[in-house]
Design goal:
Structural class: alpha/beta
Largest sheet: 8 strands, mixed
Bound molecules: 2-acetamido-2-deoxy-beta-D-glucopyranose
Family: Belongs to the sulfatase family.
Protein name: Iduronate 2-sulfatase
Distance between the termini: 46 Å
CATH superfamily: Alkaline Phosphatase, subunit A
Number of domains: 1
CATH topology: Alkaline Phosphatase, subunit A
Subunit structure: Monomer. The 58-kDa mature form is composed of two chains resulting from proteolitic processing, the 42-kDa chain and the 14-kDa chain that remain stably associated and form the 58-kDa intermediate form which is enzymatically active.
Number of helices: 15
Helix content: 25-40%
Pfam families: Sulfatase
Catalytic activity: Hydrolysis of the 2-sulfate groups of the L-iduronate 2-sulfate units of dermatan sulfate, heparan sulfate and heparin
CATH architecture: 3-Layer(aba) Sandwich
């Protein structure tokens, strides 16, 4: 009896020591990647490497960015605070100098003994990360940027006339590119070198962040990838014109697609288009080819993880920073509050915990998740802290807190292996996002796709529940960062059960009055009141 007791104590101690083993983190961010992946059921995708990672991961089917623009989205998930808290809706402010001295995800790991390293586009470069990827705070070493990224918008795309252009559709021969390479190839090489070198170094445990630039425009990729996506196989969405009941403020005129030489030559009318179908197919083909190219690079990266013996002790997260519209509603690019611009891939691989190989059913979850959830999740998975505190209403002075929640309960629920386990859990009731506009009607100047803070007059607040997306566009005080809910400019309601592509705005349907009232109250109350029940109680306390 006593001996058995001691043995079990011993077992507990041993397993506790074993469980304290540090876990590395590999954080992969893909620029402008919507869930155009095999593991998300996208039939046109050719993404064997990401799909293979998905075999070992939880695939979050309903994951959302907080704003469909690079800098605000990235600063948001890297600090776990929302755009309204960071006061960043454009590219032009650095939170530490402008808002508050908030701790970032990599900084937190660095402070807890991790070696943190950044390759490629992780923070958005420029003012929003103080021209330094938030150095010296976030990273243990100088972040790596691929030298050939300086040719990002150079005239390197061979046109039908045989000359070089600044096109959106840009399959290339890599050896003839300036420098004989492409940015994502350089990023991959540097990250793989890191993985080879880190094994016998003192850089352990590590937090390795790798950011790929494609499939962001221009769609420049090694031309052989186009063979995986024959033009005849490219399908356009059925509804691809301006939705009749859409308020104009919701529309993004896709300025950065229009300005490419090949698109400009089509004389597409501003702001509503349409883009000719024949060219729409070419863009979509190139987007999928660019995704296949990045998938290949990610395959090499994951091989390096395995070859160096890190697959069993490295947590892997893969995300897109926001979605990308390809002719849905007649729109292109991000810059909106539509599902297609906000929904992102989110894969989470935790060694020994997410290998639900027994059945495909258990790999997927439809629980609503937001990119702000990643920071608290990684902190808990590595046992660096039991949990991050939830940010109070005014968190300007608080360095470390989260506006997301840990996804650990989802993993634990899925381990119960009942195919609807996560449906019945106490979980957040909505995902929140927002997008600013300079006015009611789409404009080139100011650019209504990406207005500067000083020009922002309207904010669109969007709520995604299990069944609906509800969005309100209201006047916005850009000095005090306050929405004027009483001054509504337009609203949208989509029923995802009947209309998953958001083509029918039902906000003025008489039968929907009660639903609209409920969603409206939920939106105005804010994200805190849609948290799991046990956390909402804490707010009231
Ligand atoms: C964290 O702690 C839990 C529970 O003690 C354990 O199962 C897990 O393996 C630990 N993870 C790490 C990375 O130490
Ligand atoms: C902001 O935080 C960083 C890192 O946590 C710290 O080194 C720095 O002194 C802080 N700056 C201010 C102004 O408090
Ligand atoms: C941002 O960069 C500027 C210029 O290098 C520097 O003076 C300033 O201290 C930096 N801000 C922070 C919070 O480190
Ligand atoms: C790491 O060190 C071990 C033992 O010193 C050696 O056998 C191995 O080749 C080294 N690995 C690398 C990648 O340098
Ligand atoms: C676009 O407009 C230019 C100048 O008006 C004209 O030369 C060209 O043929 C037009 N292209 C198309 C595709 O209509
Ligand atoms: C799914 O959940 C319902 C309760 O909501 C339960 O009755 C049912 O047995 C569950 N099905 C499976 C396969 O777990």
């Amino acid at each position: 009896m006593k001996i058995g007791f001691f043995i079990s104590i011993l077992n507990v101690l041993v397993s506790q020591i074993a469980s304290k083993r540090p876990q590395n983190v590999l954080f992969i961010v893909v620029d402008d990647l919507r869930p155009a992946l095999g593991c998300y059921g996208e039939k046109s995708a050719h993404t064997p490497n990401i799909d293979a990672l998905a075999e070992h991961s939880i695939v979050f089917r309903n994951a959302y960015a907080q704003q469909a623009l690079c800098a605000p989205s990235r600063n948001s998930f890297l600090t776990s605070r929302r755009p309204d808290t960071l006061h960043l809706y454009d590219f032009n402010n650095y939170w530490r100098d402008f808002t508050g001295n908030f701790t970032t995800l990599p900084e937190y790991f660095k402070e807890h003994g991790y070696y943190t390293s950044s390759f490629g586009k992780v923070f958005h470069p420029g003012i929003s990360s103080n021209w330094s990827d938030d150095q010296p705070y976030s990273w243990s070493a100088e972040p790596f940027h691929p030298p050939s990224q300086k040719y990002m918008n150079a005239a390197v795309c061979r046109g039908l006339d045989g000359k070089l252009h600044r096109n959106i559709v840009c399959p290339v021969e890599v050896e003839f590119q300036p420098g004989g390479t492409l940015p994502d190839v350089e990023t991959l090489t540097a990250a793989v070198d890191f993985l080879h070198d880190v094994r016998n170094s003192s850089k352990n445990p590590f937090f390795l962040a790798v950011g790929f630039h494609k499939p962001h425009v221009p769609l420049k990729f090694p031309k052989q990838y186009i063979n995986l996506h024959p033009l005849e196989s490219v399908e356009l969405p059925k509804a691809r014109s301006y939705p009749s009941l859409l308020p104009t403020v919701a529309w993004n005129p896709w300025t950065d697609v229009r300005k490419r030489e090949d698109v400009a030559a089509l004389n597409v009318s501003f702001p509503f288009g349409p883009m000719p179908d024949s060219f729409a197919r070419k863009i979509k083909q190139s987007y999928f080819a660019a995704v296949s190219y990045v998938d290949d690079l990610i395959g090499h990266l994951l091989n390096a993880v395995r070859e160096n013996g890190y697959f069993d002790n490295t947590i892997i997260v893969l995300i897109g920073d926001h979605g990308w519209s390809m002719a849905e509603h007649g729109e292109w690019a991000k810059f909106s509050n539509f599902e297609i611009a906000l929904r992102v891939p989110l894969l989470l691989y935790v060694p020994g915990q997410t290998d639900f190989k027994t059945s495909h059913l258990y790999k997927y979850t439809h629980v609503l998740t937001e990119l702000v959830d990643i920071f608290p999740t990684l902190v808990e998975l590595t046992n660096l802290s039991q949990s991050l505190p939830l940010c109070p209403e005014n968190s300007k002075k608080i360095k470390l807190c989260t506006e997301g929640i840990s996804l650990l309960p989802v993993i634990q629920n899925m381990q119960k292996k009942t195919n609807n386990a996560t449906l019945n859990m106490d979980w957040k009731k909505a995902a929140f996002s927002q997008y600013p506009r300079p006015g009611i009607f789409p404009t080139m100047h100011p650019n209504s796709d990406k207005p500067h803070l000083r020009d922002i007059k309207v904010m669109g607040y969007s709520l995604r529940t299990w069944q609906y997306r509800y969005t309100e566009w209201v006047l916005f005080d850009n000095h005090n960062f306050i929405p004027r809910w009483a001054n509504m400019i337009g609203a949208e309601l989509y029923n995802h059960k009947l209309d998953p592509h958001e083509n029918i705005n039902m906000v003025n349907n008489k039968e929907m009055i009660n639903i609209v009232q409920l969603l409206r109250a939920q939106l105005h109350a804010g994200w805190r009141y849609s948290l799991p029940k046990h956390l909402v109680k804490n707010i009231y306390n």
